[in-house]
Amino acid sequence: MNDNTQNVLSMQNVVMQFGGVRAIDNLSLDVNKGEIVALIGPNGAGKTTAFNCITGIYTPTSGMVSFNGKNLKGNSPDEITRLGIARTFQNIRLFSNLTVFDNVLIAKHLRAKDNVFTATLRLNHAEEKRMREETAQLLKEQGLYELKDEIASSLPYGLQRHLEIARALATQPELLLLDEPAAGMNPQETQELTDFIVKIRDQYKLSIFMIEHHMDLVMQISERIYVLNFGKLIAQGTPDEIQSNPEVIEAYLGGSEDA
Amino acid sequence: MSLTTFLQQCLTGISLGGAYALIAIGYTMVYGILRLINFAHGDIFMMAGYFMVFAMASFPWFIALPVVLIVTTVLGVSIERVAYKPLRSAPRMSVMISAIGVSYLLQNLATYLFTALPMGYPEIPVLKKVYQLGGLSASFVTFLTPVLTLILVYLLMTLIQHTKMGMAMRAVSKDYETASLMGIDINRTISITFAIGSLLAAVGSILYFTDRMTVFPFSGSLPGMKCFVAAVFGGIGSIPGAVVGGFIIGIGETALVAAGQSTFSDAFTFVILIVILLVRPTGIFGEKTTNKV
Amino acid sequence: MGPNRMINKEKRRNCICTLILIAAVLGICGFLEANKYSYSYAISIIERSMVYAVVAVSMNLVNGFTGLFSLGQAGFMALGAYVTAIFTIPVSQRASVYYISGINPVIAGIQLPIIVALILGGLVAAGVAALIGFPVLRLKSDYLAIATLGFAEIIRACIAAPQFDTITNGSYGLKSIPGFTNIFQPLALSVICIGLMVLLINSSYGRMFKAVREDEIAAEAMGINLFKTKELSFVISSFFAGVSGGMLAMFMRSIDSKTFQVALTYDILLIVVIGGIGSVTGSVIGAFIVTAGREILRFFDEPLMLGGVQVPLFRPGFRMVIFSILLMIVVLFYRKGLMGTNEFSWNGIFDFFKHPFKKKSKKMEGKA
Predict the structure, then answer these.
(1) Residue ranges making up the domain that contains B35
(2) Interchain proximity B277–C162, CB inside 8 Å
């Protein structure tokens, strides 16, 4: 299964310790190219901590995170985004007072070739034009173009989630990390999101690694699932294997209202 | 430098450090609870100096002292009520600007009411009495300051560790919102924090100005900044940290003055700030905090 | 076609309005310049306002647009002012300026053109800002406030220190600084400086500054290097603070370390807060209102006789008390200041006159 050439993200024996608490204990996992992989587990299991270790917000106490075979140790969050990992946040983090267009446009600057002098003196109009066109293009693809002049915080909740994903896509990632994309959504919205995730995976040739509590969504589209409990990996496998795993049912599915 | 001069300087440094420590506690407690640099704290300290000038003009010293302590405490609590409380949910920068506004107002008010010229600080005979200790000679206040500082800090620590009020203060500084959900009266806790901070600033003010003999509208701003640095040095939010920081800043400054570098003794504080921020941003006793994402 | 023609019409109207405004400003300045002896008081208020407008916008760049709380403006202005002064005081007059302790031979013979000296002053301020920013900008912005405030005091202490007497002339200050020869010089300088900052704010880098202000973690996740972006904003802001310090030196013609006390930073903060944190036009308007207001309120400092009775409150210092109360009122009750985060626009003005009682016009929103 873990063919090295296809392996986009790999975590090996990652430990994240906060004082006396091991938020993540010896976690190893892989995401292969083009896969949709889910990370599930009860609240406080260390899922978001795992994301933070991947995106450089935390530096793991020990172990290794690598992306396309490159060790990410010592890379700051912005460098990791530059390498091709984009993410969304559990509690939406948009640039609230800026417009929808600017939210996406800012993400486009990542690969711009300009500096503060050329930008200030408008010697970079080719670059600026490219960024604006790409932003408009992306917003059209995402069906958000009509909203481009709205202030981000004025959008309804579902659209804010959508915008956050669009903004992540604007960084042109290879790997997209989604932190509870369906949080706060009703069943119909969740179903739309399910289709949407598969669609963007195919359209933008992404690998997707997501944290999610909605089991319908997870079971429908994940190719593989990892289960985390108290920072430890307790199971991994296909949706069918996970659903019939007694330990998982015991730790998570059995006692959770989300099941 | 002879041993006596050296010890004499040490004593001066420790005494100054004690006064700094008392002011630094006010910064560290307010920061711990509101995450606010109370820019007006140094000016409360300055106002306490003026209160003493006027209190001593009308009362004997044993009445003047409590009057000054009470009036300063009331001033500190009213500032919180008027200038910070309405901004509880405002962005942090607004509250800081409000704090600067209060500082600016107090300085201008003092200039207007008492003129910009330094005023003579009244002498309290007991405090000014000179004692000889071996080759050392110093006024009583120099010996009293560090001792009084340590006693007050001990009392404060006991209050915070062992009383219900102290528990509320610790809870609010750990997590503001949860504390209010747990039924803790946030506003009352914050008022008490300001009251304690201002009270200690008033004590510090009496000790500090008795040694310096004059007070003027800006005499709070530089000591204020130094004491904030002391609080950062010790680890902001930590009371023992503020005390240690206060002593270190006071001793360091005195040492530089003794070495003939008085122009740079003020700069020294900020060099310390930069160094501590580079080496150990959480200060000596600070806890490492991580942002929740 | 309908809406398009409307927009074109609006554009033409705005263009005409802008031209009228420029003509009016030039006309007023020309008139004042032609009668400079009868209007010297008005001219000095306007020139000071222009200098303050530059530094207020520079403070807004870092505080309002990048979300960092910097209080070092007076220090950076001091650096710019001293560099400008030292290199522009005519060589022939230096002996009389430095008559107490003499002038350092290294700088004794160097006299630079004013523009070069101003830019050099800005660069020195920017360089020092880069050094302070390096440790401090990696931390929470609270520390930046106290570190910059403290640093401004260090600069002042160094300027007044006897060790630097042969460069800064210590506590005696510097005089015989060549001043502005006409009102168009400060006008041109401030228009260029503010214009450059506006271009920056509306560029791709300005957008990154705003992203950092809005949410640091999200900005990082979008590939923005937090430290570099903050440092850039802080250094550029300090550059313009330095230039405005040089302009202040030229305006005042004599400076000493007391000119650059913390109170100067607070004055500029007052301008930014009154104008609106995050609004360039707000800062410019604020600079004029505060500077002019200060002069107009001067009567508060004079004893006032009303019907033969002296009104008790009016004596020196009252003006500053009024000013600080004003600041508190703005902070507590009108937190957005005059402009909030909006910018001046003709559409905004016309909408305002068409619907004076409608709360906010849509067109003015979201520009910042």
Answers:
(1) 23-220
(2) no
Contacts of residue C135, defined as CB under 8 A and 6 or more positions apart, other chains included, come to B274, B277, B278
Q: Which of A17, A54, A33 is nearest to A178 (CA)?
A: A54
| pLDDT tens for each residue of A223-251 | 999 999 889 999 999 999 998 888 887 77
Cβ contact, residue pair C224, A128, below 8 Å: no
Is B108–C277 a contact, with Cβ atoms under 8 angstroms apart? Answer: no
What is the interface pTM, i.e. ipTM, of the complex?
A: 0.90
SS3 content of chain C, % helix, strand, coil (to 5): 75, 0, 25
Nearest residue in chain A measured CA to CA from C236: A116
Asked if the structure places residue B9 within a domain, the reply is: no
By the 8 A CB rule, do C345 and B99 touch?
A: no
| Beta-strand relationship, A85-87 and A175-179 | parallel
| Burial per residue of B37-67, b for 16 or more beta-carbon CB atoms within 10 angstroms, e otherwise | bbbbbbbbbbbbbbbbbbbbeeeebeebbeb
In chain C, the domains with their CATH numbers are 13-364 (1.10.3470)
Query: In chain A, what are the domains?
Result: 1-84+173-259 (3.40.50.300), 95-170 (no CATH)
Residue C175 token pair: 């005089």
Please, which pLDDT band fits residue C17 given cuts at 50, 70 and 90?
confident
Q: What is the pTM of this model?
A: 0.89
Mean pLDDT, range A163-191, rounded to an integer:
93
Which residues lie closer than 8 Å to C23 by C-beta, 6 or more apart?
A: none
B287: in domain: no
Does the beta carbon of B109 lie under 8 angstroms from any beta carbon of chain C?
yes
Domain total of chain B = 1
A145 touching chain B per CB within 8 A? no
**What is the tens place of the pLDDT at every residue in B146-184?**
999 999 999 999 999 899 888 888 888 888 788 888 888
Of residues C39 and C236, which shows the higher confidence score?
A: C236
> Is residue C226 less than 8 Å (CB to CB) from chain A?
yes
- Which of C250, C195, C241, C319 is closest to C47 using CA atoms? C250
